[in-house]
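QUALITY CONTROL LOG
STEP: pairwise intake check
CHECKER ROLE: data steward
CRITERIA: each record must contain a sequence immediately followed by its structure tokens, with no blank fields

ENTRY 1 OF 2
RESULT FIELD BELOW
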Amino acid sequence: MHEGRTIGSLMMAFETGMKQAKPQKNQMDFWIDRGGTFTDIVGRRPDGTLVAHKLLSENPEAYRDAAVQGIRDLLGLAKGEPIPQGRVGAVKMGTTVATNALLERKGDRTLLLTTRGFRDALRIGYQARPKIFAKHIIKPEMLFERVAEVDERMRADGTVEKKLDLDSVRTELERALKDGIKAVAIVFMHAYRYPEHEKAVAKLARDMGFPQVSVSHEISPLIKLVGRGDTTVVDAYLSPILRRYVATVDSELDARKSGARLMFMMSSGGLTAAELFQGKDAILSGPAGGVVGMAETGREAGFKKLIGFDMGGTSTDVSHYDGEYERAFETEVAGVRMRAPMMLIHTVAAGGGSVLHFDGARFRVGPDSAGANPGPKCYRRGGPLAVTDANVLVGKLLPDFFPKIFGPQQNQPLDATEVKGAFAELAKQVGGKSAEEIADGFIKIAVENMANAIKKISVQRGYDVTRYALNCFGGAGGQHACLVADALGMTEVLIHPFSSLLSAYGMGLADIRATRQLAIEETFGTKSLAALKREGARLGKDAKAEVAGQGVSAKSIKVIVRAHVRYAGTDTALIVEAGTLAKMKSAFEKAHKSRFGFIDRSKELVIEAVSVEAVGGGAKFRERAHKTTRGKLPSPARKTEFFSGGEWHQAAVYTRDQLSPGHKVNGPAIVIEPHQTVVVEDGWRAVITAKNHLVLERYVPLKRAQAVGTKADPIMLEVFNNLFMSIAEQMGVSLQNTAYSVNIKERLDFSCAVFAADASLVANAPHMPVHLGSMDRAVETIIRENKGRIKPGDSYLINAPYNGGTHIPDLTVCTPVFDKAGKKTLFWVASRGHHADIGGIAPGSMSPVATSIEEEGIYIDNFKLVDRGRFCERELYDLLTKAKYPARNPLQNVNDLKAQIAANEKGVQELHKMVGLFGLNVVHAYMKHVQDNADESVRRVIDRLHDSEFSYEADQGNVIKVKITVDKTKREATVDFTGTSQQQGTNFNAPEPVTRAAILYVFRVMVDDDIPMNAGCLRPINIMVPDGSMLKPHYPAAVVAGNVEVSQMVTDTLLGALGAMAGAQGSMNNVNFGNDKYQYYETICSGSPAGPGFPGTDAVHTHMTNTRLTDPEILEFRYPVLLEDFHIRKGSGGKGKWNAGDGIIRTMRFLEKMEYTILSGHRRIRPFGLAGGEDGQIGENWVRRNDGRIDRLKGADATVVDAGEAIIIQTPTAGGYGKPD
């Protein structure tokens, strides 16, 4: 937040002995980062010295463009004076113009042309909702204004299913031109590999005069319709804006006359000529420069392994570097799925402007930000308290050393008085804490948030972060660098003299790069190797020519060919350098072992794609080493004190120009740099190196054990909340990474959780709501049934619906966490995964016609899976293969269970670390405190409720009844299901844990705030479920629909009673198909319901499920099916004052004979509307037979489909809320 100091004319020279050719006589080069708030410029003078400049990005009264103005300032030109010829050499620039247009949805009007049947494919995406507890689900807005379907269709193997009808396309294009739409995105099914139809349409559009035509096979020739489609639309939407911006800069620089060469930074970390800069490459243009600057300055300072830490006003970007740039070929930015190479940068909403919150029990930081206007409280614009204010209050930000740019005349310092008053007021509310303790606490929480973000890109990917240096840049990084390093166990921090302009500096150090990708999708072997060589050479030639065309000598261009390799049937490709089959296999296995912890030699490998990069022309530089002084430290500029880690510290304040290479400043101290404040915490020291870098070193080893009391503290409550949740999330990442099946790895049908020693839930990563409140029962069973026999290194397996499980396919692995002596159980961890098949009478173990539990699959009740560290593989195979209805793919079950064991092991390790850090008493105390906090949050909801009841009829005629009674004095609610139908002869029965999960989910939704999901949520709720009812059936009733269908009904019943929202679709539409070779399972979304004050959302999963849908191209590539149609049924949601979201229709044709089952609801009864809102529509299931008949299937049904026959699913729609106007 220190950017302001240099608005105007503060410049600094920094000696670098650049090895490459200096600019020509009298010619300057410029490296620019045009950010959202400020534009940073580094100019390189003819003698090789560098000069820095900073100015506001938007200042229309003063100049048209900040970048050009900065160049003019550095050249010393008067207003209106033209740029003299030959004075400007290369201009290398990163810009947020595209990112901002994307965030603000201000791109060009765009037409999307796509295959018939897929007009809504990008809108539906993968059907998951971003926040699982949100009542009003908000999905990102689409970028295209209009979509037109084209009559054409290719199959996954290149067969032409339907020829292209160019005449109808011409009509659509003419209509768009007439309406003023000038940008077109063309995205056809399987065009990544068979682009003939796209080529023909692109030629037509270009011939008709469309200035912007983005074609998916050119933009991103990789499999996955949704990601490739989004990327193509982004390109069409943003490229015209970039072109206009480039033209502005070009004309202002008068490039033709002045001879300036304009280049832009791409998201992948390479520079490209202005005329080649495209929308799809511009999203991370600025931050990518930061990563290059981070890597190059780190290398120059002698650090090989680096974590980039870029903390600005609104957010913090973190990145990882250990000799190679890490890129992602699939990322999501601003709600858009990108399938293009981008630097792997993780952003967290914690910056200097992050707003501080207190809700009566715990402190929170962000995610909202005070922005630049009004900015934090100290900015004198009436803003809220933010992280910057906390640093002002504790004495780490000194107003005297901060630019005086505030107040109406922009000549006043930061307002410390206003900040003190606001914190004093907060201290009164909190009670028992000083204002400084409160501010210090908020800083601690912000630091934990940033440390957790760094864990995501390092620890979770298998890197030991303690061996890395933190390269800190951005305006607010220096205030927090030591604390963030301490939170991660890191001991070195680098702060480069250009740290506050590192993105701009990075532009100058970057290479010119050109990248190309192409899908190969061939089994690993001689054929795929030939394709890799052939396409690699072709693409390499293209890429090399592009770089050479930008003035780089062909000799100095390096071309790197890489193969994207994955295990067959998975989605996670790892990138290895192309070479011999043996070399690539070995590199893949090494990378897989390091990242995921296992390799599987029995599984086939696939070369998914080839990517090629041509690199050259970068400013290879060496910074000059200076003589180091042995002289004493000068007297500090002043003495001060700051409050940190719960106590006051006396500190010396030095300005950077007082310090010379060789000086060492022991903390506590503050170093004031020209653009930022660096806080040297106690136990750290600042060293000025020979190259004039500031390196912070921890010279007093960190006492890892933290002295924290066991009394609930609002600061530590939030810290522990985040730590417990982080452990559950890390377990989830481990499980997803190491899982074998598509169901767990890609559909994400799993959950991980941490429990206290008594099996009460402490933290559950927000994976699958239906698992959330039910896993504790499984852990309880394991504890009860193995009393006195549980040993360190044991793990247990259970799915028994009548003894703590939910339904047969959900397998739960429970692992105890012992103390160091191995005597006492301290905690439990568990992971639950939905296995694609666990036996039973139908593939997928989800038979709609099963009437007893045995027919649904193998009943596993308290099976010892690991015995003191020994994996009981033989016993497990016996269990899976010797049942009456054995598992169809036991290898898959075994491998997924190994992944669940590995996830639990991660939880065990992290809990041990936590105990080492805080002590067992404190961890146990805070396990209770986080539950108490959730308990109180739910009681606050109960305070707002009144007695209510609701009755819900299902298709089979059975009824769920609920009565909610509120005791205002005790602040408790009783949820009573008396009157609910008896257990069913079908499988529409829910074991009692499923009902508890639904209640927990509903009350968590009602809290309407970000509280942890744990056992405390259920404490104030008394649950009464009649024995022998469909919500508490007796053995051996079948229960498979309980988890997936009845759970949705219970949720709707409760939300209906509370008047919170209308009925959702009340079903998951569970589809299973398979034969001896294939098994596949999916659930299908509909629209979400409306409620008081909010409409529903189209085509999204609701309530108890949130599983992903397989991408249409992957689906057809892996299975013998053809997805004919998948679209939103406009206007189908229930009407009301607030309308429900619309449902979908999905038509799938089979290319081989298959067994098919459907388990669904609301095929007879319409989902209810509330408060006068209309009911939704019923769903339908049909089979289109080869002889032309259309057979209707029941809600729960099984059939056989022949090759050529199709299944059509129309999902039921949710109800509206309030009387329609």
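ENTRY 2 OF 2
RESULT FIELD BELOW
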Amino acid sequence: MIKQIFNLSSFMKQRLFRNASRKILFSLIGVSTILSVAPQKSIAKINVINGVLQRNVIKGRILDATGEPVIGATIKVKGTTNGALSDLDGYYTINAQVGDQLEISYIGYKTRTIKAVQGPNNIILQEDSKNLNEVVVVGFGTQKKVNLTGSVAVVDGKKLTQRPVQSAAQALQGIVPGLQISNSSGGSLESNPSINIRGTATIGEGSSGSPLVLIDGMEGDINTINSQDIESISVLKDAAASSIYGSRAPFGVILITTKSGNKEGKVVVNYNNSFRFSNLIRGKHMMNSVDFATWMNDARTNTGSSVFFENDRMKQIIAYHNATPYTPGVRKADDGTLLYAIPAKPDNSVWQDGYAYGIDDIDWYNVVYKKTAFAHEHNASVSGGNDKFNYYVSGNYLYNGGFMAMGSDNYKRFNGTAKIGAQLARWIRMNYNMRFTRANYERPSALTNGLYSDMARQGWPVLPLYDRNGYLFSSPSPALGLKTGGQDRKETDIIYHQLSFILEPVRNWITHVDFNYKIDNSIRHWDSQRTYNHNVAGEPVIYNQNSNVHEDEFKDNYLNFQLYTEYNKSIAEKHNFHIMGGFQCEQLRRTEFGLQRNGIIDPEKSEVDLTNGLSYQGVAITPNVNGARNQWQTAGFFGRINYNYAERYLAELNLRYDGTSKFRSDKMWKLFPSISLGWRISEENFMKNTKDWLSNLKLRLSYGSLGNQNIDNWYQTYQTIAYRAFTGYWLQNGQKTNTTSAPGLVSSLLTWETVESYNVGLDFGFFNNRLTGSFDYFVRNTKNMVGKAPELPSILGTGVPVTNNTDLRTNGWELQLSWNDQLANGLHYGVTFNLSDSRTKITRYPNNPTNSIDTYIKGRYINEIWGYTTKGIAKSNEEMNAHLSTTDQSTIGSNWAAGDIMYEDTNNDKQINDGARTITDHGDLKVIGNSTPRFLWGIDLNASWKGFDIRAFFQGVMKRDAWLGGSWGSLEYYFGATNSGEWWATGITAVKDYYRDANTWSVANGYQKANQDAFLPRATFSNKNERCQTRYLMNAAYMRLKNFQAGYTIPRNITTKWGISNMRVFVSIENLFTITKMPKQFDPEMIGTDPRHSNGYPLSKTFSFGINVTF
């Protein structure tokens, strides 16, 4: 056998030339690789099986349908570990007995099972044509995957169900090239990922660039659907694929198909669960009290002010820091002296001000957030039926506990699904689908965006958390409001009803009649309670005097009716036609109202009817009320013609004629066409000799034009008048008067925003589709976006109207590669890699006549970051003075000294400034980066062997620059101290690495050591060092192990004894680790330009385990 292995190369060459086939070459490489990497034990076992004649042996040969030998096919004796593989001529020998069941498998061929007989056991394997005949869900129907001419990506529902995450959208992140899903809003339980297809879609005022999400053909919510119900997801990315949906889908479609009942005549019951434990990742922490106090004093003295913390208080802070915690608000020194976090006033009545006298040592992030959160999810489903009637019923419960330690936040979701299908007669079938979702979210009333901007600035470590009596104390500081300031509870019910009839009175002529109805109802109760500090005697003292109850009601009634018919016709078995035409109409009616009344009478019963309408002082407060009733309608006629010649030359034409109530009657209707072509090059006669290694090669071309009517203002072409109750500035009969205002100007020319898409794509498969992939290049022009008209004279007295005056172009590419194979030892493995990129350029923007760099500029890419070039931090006054002698920095700051930034004079005018901040006069500014995410990628690695399975999914962004927006809630989390002053200062640990030398207050007074090689400049309450610049431009590229999972499926010969057909146990970890160059206080997935991004609710790492059982 060893000799045989050494002679493989020469034998291969002879056979290659004899058959003029490359098939053996690639197969042989695979076999050699298997033998080279297999454990020595396995090699010995294979050698013995194939090289030694044993008493109980079965021999045979494996051939394909053309009579060619199949090399490296796996032959196994079912129920045992005995195995072998076929040799170069397809022959095999295996240790087995007559009557044993032999299972023969090979990637790209259908697996066969035979009973071993005496004599040659020759087997012919048929190619597995599932890749060729795989059906993909597209708009209003299905198509064979090989016949697709548009850009469509398909995700198997199994990939989503294996991820124990809150929503299907989170599980989709990184799987589909071009589908951009980001958690920029943070890890808060109610937040949903943002989704777009192929980059920036629109910048029109009030326009939405989100894709249309359809669940079983009806608009739905991808964030609330039960992932366990999903059979597959199709992402329609170009206009040719999505144009059939018209103006509702100008920026792509996500089609979700849910599971249905089986037709095998048996009942299948499934139950699965997961239990999850999470902890925060890349969280922030406050400095200890001593470091904070010295840092604050450094910032004040560097700015030219006196210290905030005098020497006596510094001594108290150090003593308290070094003491041992005793009781809340109390520590004990080494000599037994009790030290108090906040002293009492001289009259011993109430406590002193926390900012002026507090000496506590609190990390407010540890106070506000818990270290661990718990969640669990349970799913159960029953399906069954036959050709005449089938059903699928499922239920889901998810509890997701939040991280709030002060107060409570949690998310609960209940899902129920019932689907039935019935063959009413030979020519008519009925399907009914009902889905119900209830989502409950609860949080402290104080958990708002305001908390994220205020937490560190109102969370000075020296501020007391408790007084010495053990009561929470607010200076202000975050804890009291979170713990006792009330709760915000929201309950959302969504119910879907779908009834459809499929009629086929004549063969190949099918008519669909669909009725879809959805009710989306939300109620929200938000009570804001009075909060109390306590005096020295332990008696409550009012702190926040306001109390109110807020109630909101929101209801959408959505109706969708669609009727379409399709006909298939083949001529001479080569000319294949599919014609489809139909009509669709939609209506959405929205009702919303809210009210707020002040003066909660009983804090334990915070209901709106138990309020008195009075302030704390007894003054009447007019209740706030709001309400609206709105609706829109659309109607559309659509048609599609598909033609293919012998499934080699492909063509598709779509037409959609849409009307919407959002435009005036003369601009209400518009026609949107698309055309796409495909050429299956691999099916050409001149490609016959490549069949052994080239499975599929298809070229795709497409063009489409769509309109966008997804705008926030449903009545933008109408002048509207606002009425306001009791908002006048004078009294009439003791009451303020009602007011109204003149309507703004409206352009009579407002019309459709249009989207033109061009796409060229290449699909390919090699080695019996073990290696598959696709590449797409696209251009998308979004035209006539709504923007403000050029400025008009102020004498006009009102704002300028919006018009269709803005265009942009997005271009990019997408690549996906997949390899799936099976080794001789039964190891299945797969690798999928995807990579995509897109950029957006403004091609028309008239509202910037000066070409200001602070807004959009025609001919330039969006999201450009303009900044200064940093020369460095001056290590001494001498170095700074030498720099200032050639470069005047007085226009951007004063009192330059050691520890300050030296900016580079890029325009050589010997001074640093930003000119007029225009494209022609930008001073020393230049484009230093771009915040558009570039080169988004994902790698999915999976393997399975003898019941064990493992999966690792990596996701990331290769290129992205980031700069925080500005002061007052954002830049402070980067630099700590800015021009926003001490009351916005954020003393987190990440800003401790700041410049200090012998002259710095903390060093001169012996509290800190010098740090002249610091990352940050010296701390000052000014913006001279915090200008946007190259030194502090953040690299937001990252790689994150989004999911690592390992499972084991218990052998069926064991589980069947328990009445179980399949049982799998698993462990999984989400967000296991992150590799990034970003400062540690920021998460690259959340980074943005406001406090919600720079200090928002953190993301989490989640460990989970569970079981999946099928009966």
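INTAKE CHECK: passed for both entries
DESCRIPTIVE NOTE, ENTRY 2: The radius of gyration is 34 Å.
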